[in-house]
Each structure stands twice: as structure tokens, then as C-alpha cells.
Amino acid sequence: MTRLTLSCLAVVLFANSLVQAQSPRTIPVGKNPESVCRGFGGKLYVTMINEEVPGDGTIVSLDGDTVTTFAKGFQSPKGLVFVGDFLVTADETTLWKIDKNGVATKLAEAKDFPQPIEFLNDVAVGKDGASVYVSEMSTPTPMFDPSGERKMWDLDGKEAKSLPNKGCIYKVTLKGEVTLAVPAGNPAIRFPNGVTLSEVAGEEGVFVGDFFAGDLIRYHEGKYVKLAGGMRGIDGLTVTKDHFYASSWTQGKVWKVDRKTGESKVILDGLKTAADFFYDAKNKQLIVPDMVGGTLTFLPIN
After folding, report:
1. pLDDT-based confidence at 42, cuts 50/70/90?
2. Which residue from 129, 144, 223, 269 has the highest number of Cβ atoms inside 10 Å of its Cβ?
């Protein structure tokens, strides 16, 4: 083998090692994973919608790449967080609280809310460590154009203008006390999905991703401020000191938005449905469920 051939081989091997180092790791977890977080013992827990048959929804735990059913009997579990030594998940019209043994009890159900509940979706941990914020998205079906798969109506079309405006955000304590955190009726958040509080100490307000418009909105003391846009289908959402991270269920993408410049960058593409990710600050990564794909992707971030 000539010196030139060896040099070329070395370049190819080096390039391949770079690709492997930069490629996020992906593992299969089952049918229709929707949300993920770290919980008991630092393990990852994932809500599994499965076949969308009443009662077949589960929460699984991961030990390495091994998937084990942790809790079951849910309708269609979506957002998931770990707070006050409990997992809390939104399940259509019910919030469930799950203990370390996988025993689920109702934290709040439809009758406990001040207004009719249609579609509880994302969940965020309250800064007090004893409550959660949950998005009441309202029924999502009206957003979609039946002529295409996961296709939403054009923003400036007549169908968009006639959509309902019922979405809101509730705060629910671990004792089951329900209060309205972001009211319905403002067009800035007609279909709220992603909800979070800032990771920055002292930064007030509730941050909401409107699924239909693709806008990131900060709500505080009655004011709605648009912080970013162009991310239709927003599902997962995280706010840090320097960046916003948002995923799109309809587009299969994850964005990183610079808070100072407003510059938006796609940092993950090619998923079928990028659902409610976990911001794993300790390990400098986002853990992104692909609901239709049935996988978790571990995406390194700086």
C-alpha cells in the first residue's frame, strides 16, 4: 500500500470518526413515546401512548437501553415531569401523580378545573417545587387540514381565522389545588402546547409555545410578549439564560434560538414527530422522543 493510499485512508477514517462523534445517539423505546424526564434514582421515564386504546397508556423506565413498564392504565399520557418525589403526567382530562412504586393517583380531573377541559398536554415544574403548570391545548383536530398528514391550515387562510380560542394554562399544586395561570381568549396562544418556566433565577412569567402559530410567548402580569416565531407545531420547550429550545411535532425538528440576537437555528432534523423533550442540563443534552418513530434521540448541546 502506497504512502498516498495510507494518507487517504487516514483522512477517511478521521472523517468517519468525526461524523460518529457528532451524530446523536438514538434508541427504540416502543410505540408512541411522547414525553421524557429524569425521575426516581436518576433514571429516565417516558410516557407511552401506545395504541391509543383506553387504558393501554403506560410510563416506562430506562435502565441503560433496557425499557421496563413502570406504571400503566392511562388513557393517552403526554407531558411528564418529576416534582416533589412524584412523577406527574397529563392524560387528556386528568393529571396523574405517580409514586416511587408506580402507583398512580388522580391529582386533578375535569371536575376540579374552573372551565371545561378538553386536552391537557404539556407539564412544567413550578419554581416552588410543589406544583406544576399544565397546558390546556383544547381539542387539536380543528387545526389540521385533512388533505395531508400532520398538515395544518395556512396561517392566513379562512380556516385559521375561524379556529377556536380556548387554550389556557393552569397551575396545580401537589395537593390538587387548581388555579388559572394564563387565561384563554388571547390570539397569541390559541393552542398552547409547550409550557415552561425560565431556568434563570428571578426571571418571572410563564413561557408558552403556541402549536398552531409556532410562536413562543412570555406571559406575565396580563401581558403577552412574542419572543420568537416560525416554529409551527411547537411541542417541547425550554428557556435558559442564553437560549430557547423548541421542538416541532409536525416538522420533526428541534430549534435553538439565541436570546440576545433572536437568531434561530435547526439543531436536529429528520425525525417524524419531535415531541416533548427533556433538557438534561447536567449531561449537556436534549433527550427528544420521536412519537411516530418510536425512539429517543440524545442530542448534545453546548
Report:
1. very high
2. 144
